[in-house]
Model the fold of this input.
Amino acid sequence: MLKRRWAIPLLIASLLSLSTLPAASASPPESPRPADAGAESSVPLPEIAARTTQVASGLRRPIAIAAPDDGSGRLFIAEKRGTVRVYHPDTGLAQTPLIDITAAVDESGNERGLLGIATAPDFPDSREVYLAYTALPDGAVTLARYDLDDARLEVLLSQEHATYSNHNGGQLAFGPDGHLYWSIGDGGGSGDPFDSGQRLDTLLGKILRIDVSRSCGDLAYCVPGDNPFAGVAGARPEIWTYGLRNPWRFSFDPADGSLWIGDVGQGRWEEIDRLRPAEQPGANLGWSCREGLVVFDEAQCGGGAELTDPVFTYSPRTGSCAVIGGQVYRGKQFADLVGGTYIATDYCSSTVWALRDDGAGGYLQAEIGQTPTQVTAFGATPEGELYVVNDLPGGLHRVSFERVAPTCRITQTANAWGGGLTANLTLTNTGTTPVSGWKLVFPLALGQTIISDWNTDLVQNGDMVTAANAAYNGTIAPGDSVEIGYLANHTGDTSAPERYTLNGHACTIGD
Done:
């Protein structure tokens, strides 16, 4: 017997977006702000600390989290080998997998395997789960629907991905419009060897948007008629956004429908993108013309394409390696601290990044803590509380936040001219104990290169600067300050650093 796929409002929406309609520039409807979406916090980011508490162990390379909105309080945790485990706060981690598709999954290579999971919007009725994985025998990146009642796996869509085993993407999420979104990497290798990012005739290097509530013709799904390339000759109509390298994890902000993407970089820049609903259809995020904000391959920059800038980039040169895109916090428990704040991390450095709209076209940013090693994914409960899973040794961790008193403050002045600038920094110990031996770490704006420095032992590595104490100013008593500075060249951007950490702790900026 056929199951009812969708709740009535979503069914109506589906019927209004037939795949035979011409292409349009429409965007997904902006979802109304949920009544329980949480407040927008105004607590300064350096006064927030992220903490994690391990709540389960024994997972085998957990890779993604889904939270069915069925009132059960359960989390579904996908494991790379092709199994899905169930965790409940009261009973812990169940030993018997809920789903086992290991016979269908190619987990050869570090980046292949079961990659993503999402529960259907009508999950309490349909009992359907959507899975993204690399399939046997050739590693094709595959989207399938799994029926929990009869353990049936139905393949919906696949993309050839045999040449290289990396850059498979794999995030799945239902958007505020009820359609399913799926990310696929650029095909792997190094430097986008297939030029996939800027091509529209392939699903590689894209985020897709499809209607899985029904089928159309020979397809096991339908292409929404307002997809930006529906009806465009030579283009894959499933494409929603393009110009991505390996969009390993993305999420939607339930308050305004914004799409947040963590796109793993080639080696110079990791980036986070935010697309509001009207900006999403057909957005070109730049790869492989650009990596972050910097030109990567000039040959891919032709055609006058309009590129969408990332809202945040960081260099992996201080121990990072791969951005793990997270979530905008919309829970209740910590709304006063991080309501409306985007939280992400990095697979290698475990740095917790916090980003918040500053109301003036930019974003406040800070490093607010550490996750466990090798986090692979964030997940949110239906109530908006956050969890993470980490790869090795394989655990589930609850994320919490607390307010802390910053232990340092930076005041900065700069004088720019022509192609140069001088910066003077006052570093104040605002804590209650002496700082003995210190390292101040901060990023420079693009194109700034330090020539000389004073009162510090300073090293620049890419855009990142580590300023360590000199022999004569290594101890800073509570309330005391040290003065340091540097002379730098610039290529036009003379802006001051936007974040500082002293011995790993975020500093406030300003008087």
